[in-house]
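User: Sequence in, structure out. Go.
Assistant: Echoing your sequence, followed by the structure tokens.
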Amino acid sequence: MTRYLIYTSIIAGAGALAFGLVAAMHVSSAVTVLLAGLVWIVLFARRLFRYSGLLFAVFNVISLACLWAGVSPVLTLAGVIFSLLAWDLTRFFQRLQMTNSTQDAGKAERAHFMRLALVVGLSLLGYFAAARIHVTLTFGSAAVLALLGVWGISALVYRLRSHE
């Protein structure tokens, strides 16, 4: 199941960025993005997992360049989220290969998918909330909110890791 989700994430991320680039009239860049997605799929199929971090970074840079090129922020966000999913699932798949029991692997997959759904859902909620809500803040209040956000995310990560 994880393997198919990795392929789906890579295809969806590259497809979202390529679609946005075609819509913004950057066809040659869209072909480059699709080729980068194809390279990621080939490297994963050949079990060269160590390159997934590099390709994740490449897709994030491409997403940033897409924003500068006038691509829809929703499509660039999709590119980032799907590349994050592909990178995370690749690392998880690598660890899952060391499991001897298929029952334990199934439990681990379900637990990991639930955590991923939580992270992706909160990310999308945060994006859409930030796009809709406009608040004027002073520097001090923004700094306090940033510290609270960092504390909250670190507490969430600590809890998720303690339940593994």
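User: And one key feature?
Assistant: The chain has two domains: 2-133, 135-164.
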